[in-house]
Write a structure and sequence with these properties.
Blueprint (H helix, E strand, L loop, with lengths): L21 E4 L2 E5 L6 E3 L5 H4 L5 E2 L8 E6 L2 E6 L1 H9 L13 E5 L3 H4 L6 H6 L2 E5 L4 H12 L16 E4 L11 H19 L5 H7 L4 H19 L1
Parallel strand pairs: 4-6, 5-7
Antiparallel strand pairs: 1-2, 2-3, 5-6, 8-9
Length: 235
């Protein structure tokens, strides 16, 4: 993904005197025409104070946009050294603002916890793997996003799995994880419904039966059982 920031000197219509036509009035940027009555004052923008001055730089990245991470009641801005440099060079350009700069807003509230959901325990046990770390931090997200948007002429190198997380392999066990087949089948068949149930507290008991959603205590009991078996196998 790439965005070219055009300077005032490069505008296709430099009316009337190019860069010299732009000034400031009461702190606001102003375009002045050939006659005193021909002028335009740009709306005041807090882009510089609210974003540029607080933006965090992801030193290893090359993406050409700003990422806005939203967490519970707060947000942070992130970009790369090359993109912030372009913005700072043109900070007096009135056409560069929060409305025109590419800002990708990402809500990470669910991302930060989704990988730790109990519903994944059974599948991992079936694979005889215990995931100990995965993409669950801003640094992880920035690294992955940067890889996704790199052009590399369409030949971006694949990310090695050990760059995406860490895990422990506690097998192969005697039954090659097949002892978790029953729990896996139950979780797979009801996984989407289970997620829906978890996120919708308004579902009553009759609806649970229609959806075929196992009671949460029952599911949690199965998950804890699987965890205990994993622990015994590893010991």
């Amino acid at each position: 993904m790439y965005m070219e920031l055009i300077s005032l000197l490069e505008l296709q219509n430099p009316y009337p005197n190019g860069q010299d036509s732009y000034g400031k009035t009461n702190g606001n940027k102003r375009l002045q025409g050939n006659y005193p009555s021909n002028s335009y004052t740009f709306d005041a923008s807090d882009f510089e104070t609210s974003i540029i001055n607080s933006i965090q730089i992801y030193e290893e990245g090359t993406f050409q946009f700003i990422i806005k991470f939203i967490t519970t009641g707060a947000f942070t801005y992130h970009t790369t050294p090359s993109f912030i440099e372009k913005i700072l060079v043109e900070k007096d350009n009135p056409y560069i603002s929060e409305k025109t700069i590419p800002i990708i807003t990402l809500n990470t509230i669910q991302w930060d916890t989704f990988s730790k959901e109990s519903q994944f325990v059974v599948g991992e046990a079936y694979a005889e793997v215990e995931v100990t770390d995965t993409l669950d931090s801003k640094e992880d997200y920035l690294k992955y996003i940067d890889w996704l948007v790199k052009s590399e002429d369409g030949r971006s190198p694949l990310i090695s799995t050990d760059k995406l997380g860490t895990w422990n392999v506690f097998g192969p066990t005697e039954d090659m994880g097949m002892s978790f087949q029953e729990q896996l089948d139950e979780m797979v068949s009801g996984n989407s419904r289970y997620t829906e149930f978890k996120s919708n507290n308004s579902i009553d008991e009759s609806q649970k039966k229609i959806l075929g959603v196992p009671p949460v205590p029952e599911l949690l009991s199965k998950i804890e059982s699987v965890r205990s078996r994993i622990k015994k196998i590893r010991e």
